[in-house]
Design brief:
Number of helices: 16
Largest sheet: 7 strands, mixed
Strand content: 15-25%
Oligomer: single chain
Shape: globular
Strand order of the largest sheet: 16-17-15-14-20-21-22
Length: about 500
């Protein structure tokens, strides 16, 4: 009897293996952090081999926690930090360079040069994205141009590129022994190289970036009944399991939150903060600084599109208060510290550590703290840090409503920060709509599990998945409207102070 689905959630700071049952409930979980590498200011890297070692470790620990027989695990789904870029040798399995992480800004000059002809929206009609350091395409170009031997190997088909999902799937399905070199449409839509209409690599953009097509993986559905291969014995499973689900982390959360209807939206609070709204089969080009992206593609069905507002720093700001300033010992301490004061005391923290993402896309911006007086204490810092996430989310939601023409009546939330009641209440106050947390808050991993399970018939259809979605808690707006407007206007003034810092 088939009982379980395995999801591998490879995130910015850690890798997790989560095993779900048919009700979408967690039956086992294992997690391991990996090192954050900062070679220079603005550069962020991960060791791909460490990520693979951690993946193997969490798989072993998670499956050892359950009593299962061969044949009882139906399939494996992958979800991953998007845009993070790996180039490796397909014959040796050795990366040519550390993975360049989505937060990394070293490709600013590449983006600026490309923008000289047509501006930052030069490729937006084809790919739905502005020219920004965020995306994988410029990162591939940087590796090809700056790492010895890579371009030569790429042109003869030895060097291959992947986002982290591609890297893990290649390893899971055999690695150097004919591992599958694939990328799903959601991750491909974040490379700045895939045409949203054709769901194929755009030859003109490849030419502009001097990226050989041979380096690129095959683009596949997010949920693929054909599958991409079976787990090899090195992965730690007792038997071969099909690998057939793959979604970028934010799209996985959209699926995990059962946002299958046009106009449904979710917001994920993690290292960054990412809001997506399902726009159905319609490609909506944003006029308000949002990204047009693929929401998911289930088998042979047409792709579902989405608008996304990407915020670079949310939970990472709490980590900064912990690690760099020492204001708290653990991230969970932030709420108690913030509750020692009744408001932010007039200070605002705009965490533009690597520029501003949606809706501004200002790589020249850097973080600011404004409104400091002798009255301010560390409680105010904690509160301002939490409020920064809520303010940024409101900016994105306002842009999303204007672009889509849809007025949201609730916001589904997930991610590590949704356990913070103070933040969730302030979020509801800022948006003026209820904020709803589901019973299973691990919606990113759940979305990957759903993609794999749909592919093999473990779940029949999306209606069955909707039935698994249950409310855990709802926060209703309570703040006086005039106070909400005052706080938000002061936030917007603070954001303006971040502009033009990098010349």
């Amino acid at each position: 009897m088939i009982k379980f689905i395995v999801a591998i959630d490879q995130g910015t700071t850690s890798t997790r293996c989560i095993i779900f049952n048919k009700q979408g409930e967690i039956v086992s979980i294992a997690q391991k952090e990996h090192k954050q590498i900062y070679p220079f200011a603005g550069w962020v890297e991960h060791d791909p081999l460490e990520i693979i070692a951690n993946t193997k470790d969490v798989i072993t620990r998670a499956i050892n926690n359950i009593d299962y027989k061969p044949g009882e695990i139906a399939a494996i789904g992958i979800t991953n930090q998007r845009e993070t870029t790996v180039v490796w040798n397909k014959n040796t399995g050795v990366p040519y360079h550390n993975a360049i992480v989505w937060q990394d800004t070293r490709t600013k000059e590449i983006c600026d040069i490309l923008a000289l002809n047509g501006g930052i929206d030069r490729f937006r009609p084809q790919v739905g994205l502005p020219l920004a350091t965020y995306f994988s395409g410029p990162k591939i170009k940087w590796i090809l141009d700056n790492v010895d031997g890579v371009r030569k190997d790429a042109e003869r088909g030895t060097a291959i590129f992947g986002t982290i999902d591609s890297w893990i799937i290649w390893w899971l399905t055999g690695g150097i022994n004919n591992g599958s070199h694939v990328i799903d449409v959601t991750n491909a839509s974040r490379t700045m190289l895939m045409n949203l209409n054709t769901l194929d690599w755009d030859e003109n953009i490849l030419k502009e970036l001097s990226i050989p097509r041979l380096i690129l993986p095959k683009i596949v559905p997010s949920s693929d009944p054909k599958g991409w291969g079976y787990t090899s014995v090195e992965t730690g499973f007792k038997h071969q399991i099909p690998v057939c689900g793959d979604l970028g982390d934010q799209q996985a959360a959209l699926v995990g939150q059962a946002c299958f209807t046009n106009g449904e939206a979710k917001n994920t609070y993690g290292t960054g903060c990412f809001m997506l709204i399902n726009t159905g089969e319609n490609i909506i080009q944003s006029k308000k600084g949002l990204l047009t992206t693929i929401g998911y593609k289930l088998g042979d069905n047409r792709a579902n599109y989405a608008l996304e507002g990407s915020i670079a720093i949310s939970g990472a700001l709490v980590q900064w208060l912990r690690d760099n300033l020492g204001l708290i010992k653990t991230s969970s301490d932030i709420e108690n510290l913030a509750r020692t004061v009744s408001d932010n005391g007039g200070i605002y923290i705009v965490p533009a550590f690597s520029g501003l993402f949606a809706p501004y896309w200002r790589s020249d911006a850097r973080g600011v703290i404004v409104g400091l007086t002798r009255f301010i204490n560390k409680g105010h810092f904690a509160r301002a840090a939490l409020e920064a996430t809520a303010f940024q989310t409101k900016e994105v939601l306002d842009a999303m409503e204007e672009d889509s023409g849809v007025k949201l009546n609730t916001l589904k939330v997930d991610g590590g920060m949704v356990r913070n009641d103070l933040l969730m209440q302030f979020q509801a106050d800022m948006l003026g709509v209820p904020v709803v947390r589901p019973k299973v808050s691990e919606t990113t991993a759940l979305g990957a599990a759903y993609a794999a399970g749909l592919a093999v018939g473990f779940w029949k259809d999306v209606n069955e998945l909707r039935k698994n979605w249950l409310i855990d808690q709802t926060w209703l707006p309570k703040m006086d409207k005039s106070l909400q407007v005052k706080y938000y206007q002061e936030w917007l003034k603070a954001v303006e102070r971040t502009f033009n810092w990098i010349s």
